[in-house]
């Protein structure tokens, strides 16, 4: 794969992009160039959309029980190639092999849920809504839909949408992140083997120009976006301007609240995994920990210890617990934000800047970092750092902690660590975030629940995964039907 130019997959065949603009794809642990990704022009989006629109005419008429058969085959292929895919994810994205396997498993679970589409997209029927009249609602596919994906879960995120879209009878176009396009390239090789009809699933590599062509194409009916909030806002507005259905999952700043009655050993282990797992590059990463009352001292000491001990290195190595961040630019941005936090009054309790990692001098590494005493109105309290940096804050009551959660502009996830059912009940009811964890550090919904998100972390109404995806990828048609009795007499 070394220095290969990646291809697009359009109408069931691999095509070399005509783009003269290409970007190198790096291994962030070593800075080695793995391949080149073309920045496909709008014309190639047009080709993929035309193929998908043509395929839709037949695919929407294939019975749902038949449409899921290639998805069953794809599940088998993903499982059979899990090790190879996990290595690829680690190589281009940096996370550990264990994390890559976990993400792939989440992708596969979405295929499994989408295989239940014959039941999941059933309609409803009411007999005799008036004398001799029946009324029913059926779900029909929309047409061509598209996903625009971020870098941090190259396998999983397109699967929050793609299997549901095509199981519902739509045809599809995926635009992976230009930073991590290799995983989808490999997955589309498996899609090719799973025998979907040509044009049902298409892959177009690229960046902004490619995205803008998707946004403007009149035949693309629905767009699913996952990425940073400024881009999510842009996609949401543009898609609406062009009359499309749209769901945009954005960035986050996720707080975890630690009450004095929490099991400190368990809480620290889970909090460290949440803050430093995937090098903090998860939209559900804990990035603020708010201690309440007497939790402050034991939690601060334990989390500082856990941060300092985490083994950072190349995610391909078995003992490594945390890999690099995605790019050198990202590392520099994270380090600058740590400095800004310090300048605004936080104490750098554990400093992960400019680490020396043996044999990986060119990698983009930041080690786990803890900022203590983060001011509630400062930059760190509200900025998504997207790196292994945990800010610590302190309050005296659970009410104050909930108020702190709720004044945040973000609303992706909030977690509480406690032994108290009453506190947990209050928190889950009052905390303003779409995903809530109680003694859980990464409250990632299973495929049969929607992947929620509120406030500046989500733009739209229906989320990815589960019955939300089925609703997003179908339009309802209501039929009111009368068959007068006298017409039956002739038979
Ligand atoms: P990003 O916004 O930079 O890029 C996401 C996608 O948008 C990419 O495919 C990219 O090519 C495209 N893009 C980037 N800039 C664009 C522009 N100006 N116009 C049109 N398209 C553009 O995000 P990223 O850095 O790849 O991913 C990290 C972000 O994603 C973080 O903010 C993270 O919180 C968020 N994220 C959110 C969720 C969630 O479920 N809420 C899940 C994963 C990641």
TrEMBL record:
Report the coiled-coil segments. Answer: none
What is a single Pfam family found in this protein's UniProt entry? Aldedh
Q: Where is the Aldehyde dehydrogenase domain?
A: 17-479
Citing just one GO molecular function, the answer is: methylmalonate-semialdehyde dehydrogenase (acylating, NAD) activity
CDD domains this protein is in? Answer: ALDH_F6_MMSDH
Q: Per the UniProt record, which EC number(s) apply here? A: 1.2.1.27
The answer to keyword NAD applying to this record is: yes
Biological process (GO), any one: thymine catabolic process
Keywords of the record, alphabetical order, are:
NAD, Oxidoreductase
User: NCBIfam families, alphabetically?
Assistant: MMSDH
Known PANTHER family for this protein?
Answer: MALONATE-SEMIALDEHYDE DEHYDROGENASE
Q: What is this protein called?
A: methylmalonate-semialdehyde dehydrogenase (CoA acylating)
The species this protein belongs to is: Leptolyngbya iicbica LK
């Amino acid at each position: 794969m070394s220095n290969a130019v990646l291809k697009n997959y359009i109408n069931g065949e691999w095509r070399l992009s005509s783009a003269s603009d290409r970007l190198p794809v790096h291994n962030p642990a070593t800075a080695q160039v793995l391949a080149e990704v073309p920045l496909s022009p709008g014309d190639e989006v047009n080709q993929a959309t035309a193929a998908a629109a043509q395929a839709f005419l037949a695919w929407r008429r294939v019975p749902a029980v038949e449409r899921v058969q290639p998805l069953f085959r794809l599940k088998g292929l993903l499982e059979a190639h899990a090790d190879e895919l996990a290595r690829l994810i680690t190589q281009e994205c940096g996370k550990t092999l264990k994390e890559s396997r976990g993400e792939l498993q989440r992708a596969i679970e979405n295929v499994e849920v989408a295989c239940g589409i014959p039941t999941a997209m059933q309609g409803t029927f009411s007999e005799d809504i008036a004398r001799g009249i029946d009324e029913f609602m059926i779900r029909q596919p929309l047409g061509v839909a598209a996903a625009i994906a971020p870098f941090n879960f190259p396998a999983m995120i397109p699967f929050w949408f793609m299997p549901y879209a095509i199981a519902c009878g739509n045809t599809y176009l995926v635009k992976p992140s230009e930073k991590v396009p290799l995983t989808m390239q490999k997955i589309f090789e498996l899609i090719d083997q799973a025998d979907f009809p040509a044009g049902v699933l298409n892959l177009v590599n690229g960046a902004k120009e490619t995205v803008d062509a998707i946004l403007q194409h009149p035949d693309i009916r629905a767009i699913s976006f996952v990425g940073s909030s400024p881009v999510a806002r842009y996609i949401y507005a543009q898609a609406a301007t062009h009359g499309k259905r749209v769901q945009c999952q954005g960035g986050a700043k996720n707080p975890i609240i630690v009450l004095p009655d929490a099991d400190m050993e368990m809480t620290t282990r889970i909090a460290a995994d949440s803050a430093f797992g995937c090098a903090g590059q998860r939209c559900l990463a804990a990035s603020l920990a708010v201690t309440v009352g007497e939790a402050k001292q034991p939690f601060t000491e334990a989390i500082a210890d856990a941060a300092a001990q985490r083994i950072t290195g190349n995610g391909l190595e078995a003992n490594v617990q945390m890999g690099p961040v995605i790019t050198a630019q990202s590392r520099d941005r994270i380090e600058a934000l740590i400095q800004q936090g310090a300048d605004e009054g936080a104490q750098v309790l554990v400093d992960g800047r400019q680490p020396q990692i043996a044999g990986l001098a060119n990698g983009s590494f930041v080690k786990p970092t803890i900022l203590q005493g983060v001011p509630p109105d400062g930059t760190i309290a509200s900025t998504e750092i997207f790196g292994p940096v945990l800010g610590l804050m302190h309050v005296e009551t659970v009410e104050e902690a909930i108020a702190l959660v709720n004044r945040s502009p973000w609303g992706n996830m909030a977690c509480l660590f406690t032994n108290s059912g009453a506190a947990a009940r209050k928190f889950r009811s009052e905390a303003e975030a779409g995903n809530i964890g109680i003694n859980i550090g990464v409250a990632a919904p299973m495929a049969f629940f929607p992947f929620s998100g509120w406030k500046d972390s989500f733009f739209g109404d229906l989320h990815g995964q589960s019955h939300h995806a089925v609703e997003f990828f179908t339009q309802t048609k209501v039929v009111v039907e009368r068959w007068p009795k006298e017409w039956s007499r002739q038979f």
